[in-house]
């Protein structure tokens, strides 16, 4: 989230890398909520006979998301809007992967060279690759076994996160 907020602050949210690749996001409050549900189920299970395999919590892994799939760049645009820097659709510039990686290569080496290795480019390969991947998770087991439902929606979570980051920026000034 920090890199996305920085990208939006710099006015770079209009540069779209990736082809509307779907992502699943999670707000920390939802993750904590899922952990509490899991702990409650574990405590309940310790006081009863073992549950059937499909209903057990102990030893199981659960994927937790906001249950609101969104493309990576819609998330970035929503973050920019939450910061008061909305991007109009006609202002979006789609950057092909190969171009993004070439620009990134020169940016990384240029910053390294001119800073004598003391600074890192704001555009790094990991970030570019990250922007192009599809990242979706199956949360059916968490919903079924834990009874998981998000406590904060994606839109509200984005706004809350942006507000927190902006508050931190003001503290650091």
From TrEMBL:
Molecular-function GO term, any one: isomerase activity
Domain 3-beta hydroxysteroid dehydrogenase/isomerase: 3-86
Keywords, ordered alphabetically: Isomerase
Gene3D superfamilies (alphabetical): NAD(P)-binding Rossmann-like Domain
InterPro entries in alphabetical order: 3Beta_OHSteriod_DH/Estase, NAD(P)-bd_dom_sf
GO BP: steroid biosynthetic process
Coiled coil: none
Protein name per its UniProtKB record: 3-beta hydroxysteroid dehydrogenase/isomerase
Organism: Macrophomina phaseolina (strain MS6) (Charcoal rot fungus)
